Amino acid sequence: MFHVKHRVIIIGSGPAGYTAAIYLGRAGFNPLLITGALAPGGQLVNTTEVENFPGFPEGIMGPDLMDRMKEQAKRFGAEFLADDVVSVEVLPAQGGDKPLYRLTTSDGEQFDTAAVIVATGSNVRKLGVPGEEELSGHGVSYCATCDGFFFRNKPIVVVGGGDSAFEEALFLTRFGSSVTLIHRRDTFRASQIMVDRAKANPKLTLVTNTIVTAIESGTDSPASADAAQSETAGSNAVSPVANALGGGLLANHAGLLAGLSKQPPKHVTGVTLRNTVTGEESNLDCAAVFVAIGHTPATDFAADLVERDDDGYILVDGGSTRTSALGVFAAGDCVDRTYRQAISAAGMGCRAALDAQAYLE
Q1: The pTM of the whole model exceeds 0.85
Q2: Which residues form the FAD/NAD(P)-binding domain (predicted)?
Q3: pLDDT tens digits for 40-62?
């Protein structure tokens, strides 16, 4: 006999997971949200100022937004476990034709449930070059929509060769004084129409057979430190110190962080390039590097549970969040390879909750 304490369990947090928890909690389902062991809240806990989430005209810190969503879900009875799900097992149906599922966490705990929502998101692929990690949030970004505004009238570099890279580069021409797209091969994976648009844009330069081998940095003078700190406030990651403190503690360490902000911050000043054909090295000045070489959905644990595409994104039925497994739903960036925005993930989390509610009722 199986013991089901939670009729629905949400795997992963972030906007999709927390929104699903809000809706299911408010409907009286007492959901359990297994948030992940290291960074509950998804990619937004590594984001500073979020300016495009509706309802916050002055912007909001990414960790603060996730804390608010979590508190809202908690208010409606959601429970939370900071752990990772390593496997999901299908159990025999009990008194009907609907299966149960057993989730096993990295700590060895097991939970049985009637419905599962997968909201594990995706991870950006990184270059892995010197300067990338330490300058993340100080000129290195993985989201043009999030951060392009902060580099008005400054030279920008985009790395990648697919449609996403070209979309980011074209979008960034609205802000940068120039945009240089760098690709390691002599042909692009992007569609021809995207390449043609890029070639027709006078602010965009395409550089092929070239890789970035390092991202260079400089330091502002103390007099300009505050201005530079404000300028990069919307980037894709908080400083290592702030990240170590954790999103939920940011408000309690405002004084410390204010003191740290007075230190002259490092920022991107250029990139080191190497031609893959000739081996020749060169330098290119820029104020920002946008990395657009793809995302990896965090769905390996569900490989034997639901159907996925060749890149690992979970497949859903039409406009719903239903997967190929009865009673398993998916939402957010583990499904969405196109938009990857907090607001679209939240909307999909709402849909997943409503789909799961209809299934359980």
Answers
A1: no
A2: 7-220, 274-349
A3: 777 777 666 788 899 999 999 88
